[in-house]
Amino acid sequence: MRKRISLLAAGALVALGPATTPAHAADPVFTLAGPAGIGLRPHPGQSGEPQKTSVEFRIVNDSTTTFDRPSTFTIDLSGLKGIADVTLAKDRGADCKLTAAAVTCKSWALWTGESTVVGLNLSAAKDSKTGATADLTLTGAAEGATFKAATTKVRVGGPDLVLDRARLKAEQKPGDKQNLSIIFANEGTDPVNGVVLEMRTTHGIDLVEQYDNCSYSDDTRAGQPWNTGWSTVQCLLEGEYEPGAVYGVDGPLTLKAAPHAFIDGLTYAVYAAGDQPKAAKYRAPAAARNKLAAAKQAPKAAARSTQQAADLDPWNNIQEFDFATRNTADLVATGVSLKGKAGETVTADFGFRNDGPAWVAHLRSKDAVARTDIMIPAGAKVTKVPAGCTGVNANGTHRDQTLGAPRYFCSTGHVVGEKETFAYPFQLKIETVVADAKGSITVGQWTPEGTTGQRWDPNDSNNKAAFVINAKDTGPAPTPTASTSATPAPTGSATPTATATATPSASATGTGVTANGGLASTGSSAQAIALGGAVLLAVGGGLFLAFRRKAGGHA
Prior knowledge:
This protein is mostly beta strands. It contains no helices and 41 strands. The strands form eight sheets. Strands 1, 13, 14, 16, 17, 19, 20, 21, 23, 24, 25 and 26 form a twelve-stranded mixed beta sheet that branches. Strand 37 (437-447) and strand 38 form a beta hairpin. The protein starts with a strand and ends in a 9-residue tail after the last strand.
């Protein structure tokens, strides 16, 4: 039998931390942390072998100094007897010992910030019963310090939301639309009381419809390269989602490629209500009065437990997708003309602008989008260099001294907005007056020797401009190069990289995204984003780094 369910108005779903007890005034206070709860798949698991679930306990030192006395941490395992089997997680128990009764860990110093105490792998014991629970409590002790304990509730069984991968077209044109089909199932042992559907899109992808049962937010914080610039939609689907049931949101949920779309991404996920990640400040839908509906086809299930358990496998709650939009971005070098007498110091901004129409973001690799190559005219010496710029020899080879170099390379961050201007402020001293002294400013793709044209830039002729000091004529003119025309489609790696290599650059003026990956101060809608190659999930109070695709079908 198929049933209809509707998304109701989304409420504020905030998980509050436990109350704390004040310590002795003379002692530093350290907070121990772990997930609020974890669920174990009943023995023997779906594959016939016990399925492990990981739990990590951490310590937070919020002070500005290292605590340099030995500390001991203990987890009593007696409550897990007959419920769960425990092993130390790999690389998470070097200073820990495990016995049948307890886990004991030693630390010789507590560094500032957050660090791991121990990681454990748990699986349901052979004779354990579904619904059985026990507490894992981490305590700490050290001379001259107080520790706030952390408790994780372990439960055999629980819900398991599993999200199917939608069939979307990766290659598109600006303005193209396609429907996002959301199908998910509860493959666990317990019902879920309320589900939050979350959709996050990058700057070039818009979600056309708005619903009054959804909340909308834009994360525009600077300095957050993995999170900044995402638009987030979270919709609350009230009701009970039963074990063995399959649910499909009918939509419409229409994705549209913006005029500036190029290399973009989407993440979409389902969470038990209350377990969804905290989004940026919400904004209400614009006069939306519609609700999404979902169809359900599943057998009846047992009554819901009094307390909703943690998801048995939070890694399969999320999917992600990459889009490659056929578009171009025209980078234009900015010419500079200066005048001055011998001994004078002059200031100039060197750089380029993006005339669009596309924004460009190296979302996976985090590599710099473009390099500005600056050749200094004869008679001038650079006395001040902005961040993100490096002095090199005239042939582009390495140079130890940054000041006074004959040539400079300046790199952007991994995002260039569709109407963004990059300006690198230099100071130069005119040591000798040379009439009509000429250098150059070139923008393009990084090469060991300097720059070359970008495959997505349709006009190479404006990639180079003149830099003139004490010009004889009215000012600089672009130096022509061979002109090309193309409308390439972007390509992007489907595998997230382990490091971020974008070089911070100087301040960017004009509209668009700043050189260091944040939004420009002009208030443009261009946003610096990083694809959810690493998506931060808050599950049961614990933090999980999830970026996994799950292909599969539920009829």
